[in-house]
Fold this sequence. Notes:
Blueprint: H1 2-10, E1 30-35, E2 40-45, E3 54-59, H2 66-72, H3 74-83, H4 89-102, H5 110-113, H6 128-132, H7 137-163, H8 173-186, E4 187-190, E5 193-198, E6 206-207, H9 213-226, H10 231-241, E7 247-250, E8 254-258, E9 270-271, H11 278-285, H12 303-307, H13 326-335, H14 339-350, H15 357-377, H16 382-397, H17 408-420, H18 435-478
Parallel strand pairs: 6-9
Antiparallel strand pairs: 1-2, 3-8, 4-5, 7-8
Helix pairs in contact: 2-3, 4-8, 7-8, 9-10, 13-14, 15-18, 16-18
Amino acid sequence: MEALLRWAAELGVSDSPTAPSPSSCLGRSLLIADFPDAGGRGLAAARDLRRGELVLRVPRAALFTSDRVMDDDPGIASAVANYRPRLSSIQTLIICLLAEVGKGKSSNWYLYLSQMPTYYTLLATFNDFESEALQVDEAIWVAQKALCGIRSDWEEATPLMKELGFKPKLLTLKSWIWAFATVSSRTLHIAWDDAGCLCPIGDLFNYAAPDDENSSVDEDRDDMMHQETNKMLAQTDLDSSDRLTDGGYESANEYCLYARKRYRKGEQVLLAYGVYTNLELLEHYGFLLSENPNEKVYIPLDLDLYTISTWPRDSLYILPTGHPSFALLCSLRLRTTPTNRRKALSHHIYSGSLLSVENELEVLKWLVKKCEETLQQLPSTIEFDESLLVHLCNLQNSTSCIIGIDEPIFEREFAAFFRSHGFELDCSIHSKLPVHIQRSLERWILAVQWRCSYKRTLTKCIAHCISLVHELSLQQNQQ
Ligand SMILES: C[S@@+](CC[C@H](N)C(=O)[O-])C[C@H]1O[C@@H](n2cnc3c(N)ncnc32)[C@H](O)[C@@H]1O
């Protein structure tokens, strides 16, 4: 890592507005640190940071882009040019990445590439067992579709990679998936290439979901009160607090990243890569958040509900609090209204107003029934999943294969998992789990965590609706 920090400093990467020291690009605002519960390797504040402060500058010369690789290697450029109209920008960046990996130590990017993760847990890396463990059809479909798209991109690009003389290992689907996952989870947006760029050091920031802006505004007010005695500093704070983004490619030909809130020394500095549900985080980045303010849970709905109003399909969901989205509630109210009254009442419905106690009770009871049915159709209960997770985490943290489960119901799950890897479950094995099984276990845990969170949201929705039904029924009885 030290060699990478030195190499990046030579290219002008710096964690301060001034030039970096020759020995490291970090140390003034940021430090590399490990955050086992929030993304693993990441960047910590080297000192207290103010909101909006510049924390990292990465000049264009240090950005890994398709253009850059092709400018440096005319062989790749001319081969890609022959295939260009048929290749997407992502396929091109993947080919450039694999080409540089194939060069080994002679690649200009060797120090950077050798610090990349060796494996990923994006949905596309899930095998059939792991995908099935998601249980919800929509999620299984997203996993299968992701792999299908990647496989077809790989098939299209294979003749070109053969032409470029790639080693057999780099021609495999496994290598392509690794490169795809690298591009998906580590690129930053740039205006001139849809595939984005790989940004050395900048790609070490872990993710936090975008906050509610109000909390940051309060924090800024606090900051300013403490800094009243130092007007100059307060002025700088005021300017920088206007900045709403975490960063971007700026006119000075460098990628600039800013602290989006106040950080105390040692705290992890996080970036908001975008607004994602947990399924999207799994698909594009291979992780999920236990508390995701942007989570949306979709339940199977009858077709007429999608067509009854102009609300888009993806606006009909349940929030992590268990409350139905505004659009879902309005659509249900509309559907529960007699057809001949819908037009007259539509302005009422679209404004979000409750139509009548009877209508609302019907809507809430329908939602309860739908959530209960959805939960019943899934192969396991939330209680089972939570206990399974405990066993899975025990196995993950244990130094041997001993599972230590005496409940047949869990033993069956584990037997199926081991069988999917061509192993028979043998509780007497004392050796460590083979690496490929440890990784598969990691993905299995992610799948079970995801389905647990899905089921928890539906359970909350049922409780929320039942409590409203009680309230409304009381009101009705009092009238
Ligand atoms: C841009 S990289 C961040 C640096 C990465 N931790 C590393 O060691 O290279 C993005 C990846 O970090 C991990 N990650 C980022 N934020 C996370 C979080 N809040 N929780 C868990 N994993 C996270 C995921 O594996 C994600 O694909």
